[in-house]
Amino acid sequence: MRVHLRFLLIALMLHASHSFMAADDAKGWFEGDCGGTTFQIEKFASASPVQNLVLRLTSQLAAPLFEGAGWLDVQAKRCSGVGKCEDATQAKIWLNETKGRSKRISGKYTVDFGSQHFEGRFRVKYRRKNPPAICE
User: Fold this and answer.
1) How far apart are CA 25 and CA 123, in angstroms?
2) Residue 113's domain spans which residues?
């Protein structure tokens, strides 16, 4: 009986931790151009399913070079369709450290839209701009 109880307890803990971890990170993509890096995060925080969060890190340096730099100010928009975007009053992003030239970046964000505050974690995949940007 005691062995069955332990097995049940371990199974419940694994199931709960998997649910917690899977719901924690929002997904999306990122791409760079001559003026910076754009992160598009889908299904963020408690937003409606059709809303996306677009974070723009403006700089000449690529996003992975900012890893470990702490919170970085970004421009942000909450979009629910083409041309239907609302600018954030304040936004910051934190990029987690990656090894080598990674095709995935994870981190966390905090964004304010007036009195609404959103924060969460994300994991985004690199998306190549087509055609690629040519910077001078």
Assistant:
1) 6
2) 26-126
